[in-house]
Specification:
With 273 residues, this protein is α/β, with parallel strands linked by helices. The chain has helices at residues 2-13, 32-35, 38-47, 50-57, 60-67, 82-89, 101-113, 128-131, 152-164, 179-185, 233-242, and strands at 72-75, 93-98, 119-122, 136-141, 166-177, 201-208, 211-217, 223-228, 247-252, 265-271. Helix 9 (152-164) links the parallel strand 4 and strand 5. It is globular and about 45 Å long. S-adenosylmethionine binds next to loops.
Length: 273
């Protein structure tokens, strides 16, 4: 425990993203803590323009949760709090978790600005049930977050933790970029990622079967990167089934029917029973 808190303090003081000598060789699940440094977190809300994002996703998640009578929601990838705030405002009982202390601090501040006290918990998905209490009606893992996991054993472990944190009829809502399209057809500029703000350029700068490296450039000239694992849609669906979820339905950019290469994002709705 002592060591964990020491590393959290160190994380808050980093002022440069930590990739080492060869950034494209860095494919570690633990990398995310060194990627979301304070200055990037501060910029994140410019990147994910909240109003534009709310417009583009509409009521999608709220409708899915309400239609199934869900009330308690665990946001496992809170980030700066966009979905935690939206769902709290819509009347859900939300707990906001994230492995990054810097992200959670920003989320809490964003909640306060909107007269909400978010219930925040710092928790890495791989040890989720050690840090959260109780079982939830729904878990959301949004914004392409799951693809921070670079090892298959970490993906399986995280899904097992999500499964265990859900009630017997709980649902997991997890999204991912359409990496199939990027791997098979290359990156296409006609796509505008749904949560990128107007003034921020977000683009992949490198892709192979094991790494998609994204670059984010801001109007003040600052640049940040994220090293993600480009997992394919059907592989993700298989992992969800193998974790024990009975049904998995996959939407493309919030639509039930779509041409495979068209959507920017896939959204998986996995039902426990
Ligand atoms: N959901 C937010 C959104 O859509 O704006 C944030 C998305 S951000 C791309 C990914 C988030 O996942 C970060 O806040 C990061 O700290 C968190 N994260 C990545 N790997 C994690 C892990 N293993 N355990 C817990 N949180 C993790």
């Amino acid at each position: 425990m002592q060591a964990k808190h020491a590393s959290v303090n160190a994380e808050l003081q980093l002022d440069e993203q930590a990739y080492g000598q060869d950034p494209i060789a860095n494919r570690e699940t633990d990398l995310y803590r060194g990627e979301y440094i304070m200055s990037f977190v501060e910029k994140w809300d410019e990147l994910i323009d909240w109003d534009a994002r709310a417009d583009s996703e509409g009521q999608f998640f709220i409708d899915i949760l309400r239609a199934r009578g869900k009330e308690t929601v665990l946001d496992v990838a809170t980030g700066t709090g966009f979905h935690s705030v939206r769902l709290t405002r819509a009347g859900f009982n939300v707990t906001s978790a994230d492995g990054s202390a810097a992200m959670l601090a920003k989320a809490f501040e964003n909640g306060q600005k909107r007269s909400m006290i978010l219930k925040t918990v710092q928790a890495d998905w791989r040890w989720l049930n050690r840090d959260i209490q109780g079982k939830y009606d729904a878990i959301i893992c949004l914004g392409n977050s799951f693809t921070h996991l670079h090892d298959e054993k970490d993906r399986r472990r995280a899904l097992a933790e999500f499964y265990a944190a859900l009630k017997h009829d709980g649902i997991l809502i997890l999204d991912q970029r359409n990496y199939d399209s990027m791997l098979d057809h290359g990156y296409s500029n006609k796509h505008k990622y749904y949560y990128a703000g107007e003034k921020v350029k977000a683009e992949p700068t490198y892709i192979d079967e094991g790494l998609a490296r994204f670059n984010y450039s801001f109007p003040d000239g600052s640049e940040y990167t994220l090293n993600m694992c480009p997992i394919r849609k059907n592989y993700m669906r298989r992992l969800l089934s193998e974790a024990g979820f009975e049904r998995v339905r996959t939407y493309g950019d919030f639509q039930e029917s779509y041409a495979e290469s068209e959507p920017d994002f896939f959204i998986h709705i996995a039902e426990k029973s």
